[in-house]
Amino acid sequence: MTYIQEFRNPTAARRLIERIHALGDGAPIRVMEFCGGHTHAIMRYGLREALAPAVELLSGPGCPVCVSASSDIDQAIELCLRPGVTVATFGDMIRVPGSRTSLQGARAQGGDVRVVYSALDALELARNLPQRQVVMLGIGFETTAPTVAAAAAQARAEGLPNWSVYSMHKLTDPAMRAILDAGEVRLDAVLGPGHVAAITGWQAWEFLPREYAVPCAVSGFEPTDILQAVLALVECCRQGTPQVLNAYGRGVTAQGNTVAQALMGRVFRVAHAAWRGIGLIPASGLALAPDYADLDARRRFDLPDVTDGPLDAEAALGCRCGEVLRGVTLPPECPLFGSACTPAHPVGPCMVSAEGACAAHYRYGRSAA
Question: Other C-beta atoms within 10 Å of 46: how many?
Answer without folding.
Answer: 13
